[in-house]
Amino acid sequence: MPIPPRFLAISAAFIAAAAWAHHGWSAYDAAKPLKIEAPLAQVQYRNPHVEAAVDYQGARWNVVLAPVSRMEARGLPASALPVGKVVAVEGFPRTDGTHELKAERITIDSKTIELR
C-alpha cells in the first residue's frame, strides 16, 4: 500500500521542527575559545540541554551546557548550580555575534567538569 501524501507532509513537518529545535554545533566558533567567570544569573535545568545565564562584560550571556543525564552522571545535579554561584565556563561563542556560549567545561568550587 502506498504512503498517503498527507502522512508524508506531516512527517516532514515533525522532522523539520525537531531539527530546528535542536541546533547544531556548527553555529559556534571553535577557533575562538572563551572563558567566562561570573555568578549564575539564571539556570534552566532541563533537556535537551541545561542552560544558564551569566552577566559578562555588560551583556547577558546564555550558556548551553550538557543534557541533564550527562550533567548528573558527571556530578552536576541541579542543586550544584544555584543562582548567584560563581562559575568559570569555557567554550565557544556563536558565530553570529549572539551572546551565547557552547560550554565545553565548567568549574565550580575548584572542581572542573568536562561536558563533552
Automatic annotation (TrEMBL):
Signal peptide: 1-21
UniProt keyword Signal present: yes
Keyword annotations from UniProtKB, A to Z: Signal
Alphabetical list of InterPro entries matching this protein: DUF6152
One Pfam family linked to the record: DUF6152
Domain of life of the source: Bacteria
Protein name: Uncharacterized protein
Taxonomy of the source species: Bacteria, Pseudomonadati, Pseudomonadota, Betaproteobacteria, Burkholderiales
